[in-house]
Structures are given as structure tokens and as C-alpha cells.
Amino acid sequence: MRILVVEDEKKVQRFIKQALEQAGMVVDTVGTVTDMLAALQSVAYDAIVLDRLLGSADSLDSLDEIRKSSPHSKVIVLSALAEVEDKVKGLSQGADDYMGKPFHVAELVARIRTLTRREAAVEHAVKDNLVAFEDLKIDLEKQRVFRGEKRIDLTGKEFRILCLLARHPGQIFSKAAILDQAWDLNHYPESNIVEVTIANLRAKIDKGYKPLIKSRRGLGYWLGEA
Ligand code: CA
């Protein structure tokens, strides 16, 4: 998930960036409306965290332009102006969410996840025992996996891990969570079993295709955008 943080106070900007990165998101930062609009030209962000007062500018005035250049980005406005009428103004001008300052960063992370998941949930809904993500298809009933038209044979463990990731695109699963979901307690696995199984899974699923399984050391694994 890639996020653009628009904030003119360097300290707050750094703080938000750090927190979102810890949550596994890729974060770019800018401090002005001009730099924001330039950034939107080159990258399709999943969400924009938009401070309302940037120098003397009210960034709500830029919402139209943001919508035009980046129609699929979710916009979360952050502002010390957080009376009901301020929030109503922000939302009615096209923001997807509006949070008052000061804010808890955990709440910001949760709101970004909720906003971006709403669309993902519609796209990736499980229909007729079929889980689909881009050209990956999983038939849960027959336990068959396809990329495009190609059928891919997986072991039971590989299949369980792939199902776990594919049912929750973008959600990060720690090694412990994967162990918990794919191995039973009676079988005490070697310490690197998750890495080994995911390496095998990647070789079968991603080799020769656009890679879908992502990872970050110390954090975990997920399916979808970086
Ligand atoms: Ca500000």
C-alpha cells in the first residue's frame, strides 16, 4: 500500500511517516500543495493523508484537483480545525475521512486500512468458493490454484498459506500468525519452515509472473501491492 503524506510541519511529517512504515505501508512525504499535485502526476497512491492548513493554504481547496489527477486515492484530512462544521465541510468537499488533531496514530492506520479495504473487499469477495486476486484464482472446494489459465500444483501447507494471504489482500501476516494458521500444534516445525514454504510457494506462484507475494524482514508476508 502506498501513501502520500502532505504535511508542512516536518516533525509531524516524520512522525506519521514512521508510524505508517511500521504498519507496512510505503510512504512518500511532501510539504506543499504544489509538491503534492506534482507527486500525484507520477504515482497512483492508495491514500493521501492531507494536513488541512499548509502554510497559508487551505488544502480543502485542492480536493477537486486531487480528485481529477488521482480519482482512486482515498483522502484523509488531518486538521486542528475539528469542529463538526469543519468535518462536514471537508467531507462534503470530497474528503473520504476527516480526523481532528491531535490524533492517535494507531487510529490513523486503522482508518487508512478501512478506507482502502472497502474497495478491495468488493473486488476480492469470495464468490462461489472462488478467491480471486488479479490473475490468481483459488477454487476452495476443489483445492485448485490457477494463474491466468495455468494450473499450479501446491502442497497442503502451501495451499493453506496462499488462501490465508489471498483472503485478506494487503493484510500483513507475521511468521507466527502463518505458523498458527497453517501448522497444527502436534507438529512442532523447524524454525525456518515458514520461510522455506513461502520460498517454494513463490517459486510456483510468482515465478515468470508479476510477483503477488510480498514480504518485509521482521514484519511478515502479504499479498498485493508493496
Ligand atoms: Ca499544517
Write a concise synopsis of the structure shown:
The chain has eight helices and 13 strands.
Structural class call reads alpha/beta
- Strand order, main sheet: write it out: 2-1-3-6-7
* Main sheet attributes: strand count, strand direction, barrel closure: 5 strands, parallel
Number of structural units classed as domains: 2
Helical fraction equals 40-55%
Percent range for β-strand residues: 15-25%
In words, what does this structure look like?
The chain is of the alpha/beta class. It folds into two domains: 2-115, Rossmann fold, CATH 3.40.50.2300; 119-223, Arc Repressor Mutant, subunit A. It contains eight helices and 13 strands. The protein has helices at 10-22, 33-42, 63-69, 84-92, 105-123, 156-167, 175-182, 193-205; strands at 2-6, 26-30, 47-51, 53-54, 57-58, 74-79, 97-100, 130-133, 136-139, 144-147, 150-152, 213-216, 220-223. The strands form four sheets. It has a five-stranded parallel sheet with strand order 2-1-3-6-7, sandwiched between helices. Strand 4 (53-54) and strand 5 form a beta hairpin. Helix 6 packs across helix 8 (193-205). The chain is elongated. The relative contact order is 0.11. Calcium ion is lined by residues 8-9, 51, 53-54.
Defining traits:
alpha/beta, 2 domains, 226 residues, 5-stranded parallel sheet, 8 helices, Rossmann fold, Arc Repressor Mutant, subunit A, 40% helix, 4-stranded antiparallel sheet, binds calcium ion
What secondary-structure arrangement, pairings included, does this model have?
Elements: E1 2-6, H1 10-22, E2 26-30, H2 33-42, E3 47-51, E4 53-54, E5 57-58, H3 63-69, E6 74-79, H4 84-92, E7 97-100, H5 105-123, E8 130-133, E9 136-139, E10 144-147, E11 150-152, H6 156-167, H7 175-182, H8 193-205, E12 213-216, E13 220-223
Parallel strand pairs: 1-2, 1-3, 3-6, 6-7
Antiparallel strand pairs: 4-5, 8-9, 9-10, 10-11, 12-13
Helix pairs in contact: 6-8
Bound molecules: calcium ion.
